[in-house]
Amino acid sequence: MRVRRSRPLYSLSVVISMLMIMVTPLASFGQTVSLVKHNLKSDAVYFEDVGQYLEALVAYDHMYRFNEVPEKKVRALMERARILAVYLDAPEASRKVYQKIRREFPSRAGQAWYAEGRLLVEMERWNDAQTLLSEYRKQLPNDLYAFHAQYLMTVAEQRRSKANNTPVTGVVSNNAPSSEQKPEKQSVDASKKKTTDEPISQQTKTPIENSKEAVKQQETITEKAVIIPPDIDSVSDGDALVESGLPDIDSVPDDVPLPIPLPKRRLPHVQPNSDVIVPSVPTDAAAKEGAGGPAVKDQKAFYYQMSEVEEPTVRILLLRKSPLLQLVAKGLQFYQNGELVWQGTQAVVKVIHGRLVLTGGWQYPNEPAPAWAGPIQVKAEEPIRVVSGSGNRKSVRGTVWLAVRDERIRVINHVGIESYLRGVMPVSSQGSWPAEALKAQAIAARTFAYFQIRHRIHLEYDMVDQHGEQGYGGVGREVAPADAAVAETRGRILVLTQGVGAGMPIYAKSTTNNGGRSADSGDLFTFSLPYLVFQNDPWSEKGKMVSWQRRYALADVGQYLVNRGVVGAEELVGFRSDRVSRSGRMLTATAVMKGRKTTVPTQFFLMGDLKLPSMLTTVQDKGEYVVFQGYGFGHGLGYSKWGGVVMAKVLKSVFGRILAFYYPGTSLAQAWH
Description:
It contains 20 helices and 27 strands. The protein is α+β, with helices and mostly antiparallel strands. Strands 5, 6, 7, 8, 9, 10, 11, 12, 13, 14 and 15 form an eleven-stranded mixed β-sheet that branches. The chain has a four-stranded mixed β-sheet with strand order 1-4-27-16. Strands 20-25-24 form a three-stranded antiparallel β-sheet. The longest helix has 21 residues, at 435-455.
């Protein structure tokens, strides 16, 4: 019997958009589409798909700034608010975006008012939610969302009463559970719900079937029961997806993103232990003097114990839409709905009329080959070799799930996070690196993956193979030094030490080399995370891949700008740096044409169109060509891998000191054993 994970219900617009993700890598952005037209939406959807949420914020910010259509501006702000609340654990920042919509776009104030009220309900701020929604109904009694606001007020009262164990007052849905009901309390941590026996998705069901099933699961798993709206059974299969506990909104245009509830991602209770001593961050003076510099005094720090969490499973998207697939392994077994439907040593699968058909490996030519409509789980006694129709191949541990998407095969690998890291580490490290640097990288990579697991329970996959922050090489890339680093740091992650979200895993972005100055998330991506901040890094300056130079013909730069839609077809006569961040990264540039000039946002242009290694660069206008002199490799946020290597060699630093330097304000946590 399959164990299915409870997951929140999301709006149909988001489900559809996530199924239509563009697979264009960052390096090719903007070569054929316009910056101010549809490509920014595609960029944003791509970034969200691969787990690069800060980059998605920048894309939506550009959509808002450079679009003249009010409806598209509002949509960009609504999407920005969603990214902040759902992925970056920043509901207060999300609320400010909704308030901005109310101020700047009065005609859409109702939607923003309702969305903020719903967010307050998800934050369990019942009084604030009811106050805000009451004011909304008073100001806009005939607004599109007014009825839903009234219903949401009922939900808030119901949940508050249940949380306080007090009788419910006012009107409550007939289907709502009594306030005296006490649902069974279980951990709602996403990692506990992820098992290798989960289906790849439930998209073969109708939206309403998914809604009913999710609501049923939510009642038995979450600590706060969800109110089922009285008219849920009356909604036809063709209607929009019913969101958790709220009626459908038939009159809302398809292009209006509806507000989304915050997923339940609570960790088991964590207890900080202040008696644990960890090495402190080395001072600049110690860094300059190297190993012989002044002693760095260790200090007390929190070390969170979360040992009751089980090792989670990571879901990696290996192939989005493959026309043909070959699977090879000893003891290969195909399961559908938990039942064995085929076994062998190799199989060739393709899609025919919407079904997965076994076209190779079938030993009975006089009988029709098996065909399956639903998701197929593939198990084996050894790692499974997956070969796509284009010849790409990779051997993976764990299980493989196959599903049909637009007459193509979608392939997702389910594997334990520790085994997953064995295939991640060698992609971006070298076996000759010091052991402490490899351990630091293993913890950063584990934290990043665990963050994605906990924030993507509403999606089919957590990571995208060879896209986004972490590449995944599978079994073929595993090496002994990296395996040892993963094993010796098993279950250790980085968590925020203090403040809102203390004890929760951080968004542990990492870069190859920050060029001697780490980037600040607020400067670079319009949203600040307290552990991704600007600081000088003398260690990365001594590492490899620290400096570079690129030369481009001015005409080629102009053509890229034309493709981006930033300039017209007129000839570019000059290109120079304009605004830079505190770390020296170029944020905007000035493009000079005959008779005019314009400002160019460079977040996607430099590393996307021009394929520069980083944004930490200067530009020299040499007339017919321009020269970029740059430093570092990557976005520059978080852990600098070459900096960690130098720290481990020069200071003989343990991984705790390395991570404390690159992620200030964080602590280690033992999440599982």
